[in-house]
Model the fold of this input.
Amino acid sequence: MKASLTRRTFLAGSAVAAATAGLALSGCGSNDTSSSSGSTDSGTAASGGALTVASMNTTDTYMPFNCSKALALGANWHVMEGLYELDMATYKPYAALAAGDPVEVSETEYEVALRDGAAFSDGTPVTAEDVVKSYERTIGEKGALYLSMLNFIDSISAKDDSTVTIKLAYPFSLLKERLPLIKVAPASASDDVLTSQPVGTGPWMYASAPTEQAIEFAPNPNYNGSHPAKADTMHWDIIADDTARTTALQEGTVQVMESVPADVADQLNAAGATVDDVQSFGLAFIMFNTKKKPFDDYRVRQAFLYAIDMEKLINNALSGKATPLKSFLPENHANFHEASTVYAYDPEKAKSLLAEAGVSDLSIVLNTTDTGFIVALAPQIQNDLKEIGVTVTEIKSEPSKTMYPNYTDTDDPQFDVVLAPGDPSCFGLDPDLLMNWWYGDNTWTQKRTQWKGSDEFAQLQDLLSQAAQAADGSAQQELWNQCFDLIAEQVPLYPLFHRTVSTGYWADQLDGFKAIGTTSVSMIDVAPKA
Done:
């Protein structure tokens, strides 16, 4: 690519490098943003053996457009491709469906050629129109989750059958890093097919429609890219229960276990398994219904955060495997800025804020997902809130696939407070992307926090827009710092801590496996050992 793709200090290679290198200290980043395919050369799949995984997550849809379900995201990494993909162990982008780097026409226009001979797993050749349609479906829904992370794109069109033209709304250098958001499916594919058993161009394909218990993968016979499947089969067991998942790894039913509970790591190590800890952006967050009194007052929202004893929460529920917050970003992120508001445990300050807001004898329902570590956090949060005069009358824990549709994504949400996990770093690591996931103009602010429409929401959008277009790196960082301060002050949704992600696996059974610092596991380029 020409110079305009590398001219800004953060958005340039040096700053993407800095952002990922900041997390690389814990195995989560890289300073190389070239389109190299990484460790694997083009070639045919290795033959023999099976790969087996125990996933902690559940889902009711595998729809690749606007996907936010952890299980579907991870599974689709293996089945679907964008023009570019990210190596999830390094955040290094590589050409996937693209034949190579974008060709610059101007600062705001690029052309991308498709990989020669690329075909979907059903044998249908991929065309530029498939890319265009996939983009349109990704951004086409009202409140589309990915829209705010792709708003630098003005349009994508077909130049010819094998080339797409991408026009930008303004010069933007993270093009390759963001295009993995657009997974390419056949233009003719129905929503029903994409929801139940998507057809893609990746190294693996769904051998059958996934069930609530398992996912069966088979090598894609039509794959001609640089990361072919390296086993005859791949099987994922869907095991939400921590104990059952631990047993599956310990007994050798699976080779890889997602999300090892902190209190069983020693047990697995003693059995001979490896447990890798990776500091991540992954977190637990607390989310408020900002249109419902008294949560329309930011002082009430702040009071909740001052009331929670984060250190005790981390030590008791997570065995110390998390880091308290000083900002929206973890401290090892290169763009870290300590926010003007930092939430240390201070119940007296919390009581004072409630008094200032005229709130007393507040009772709430706390909705949570049924994720293991989230369920473990809820009782202490209930007790901490009781100390400042807030009564949690009920903790409602259920799968995210029902919690969000039933309570937050309705026409007139009436929930009080939500406690849930989140990790947009599965899409990338730059601050613009990470903030836009939760605070952009999408479902999170339109439905869930209902923060859209506030003056502070508009202020944040203006700051994010200015930062995305800033030509000077220091000016961009200053704008982001203002964003971090505003988010920390208003807290419509805010992290409690950043987690360490623990993955268990049998190292003697796998070649090329790397634990990653985000949702799910990546089995790309992984082979069973003979």
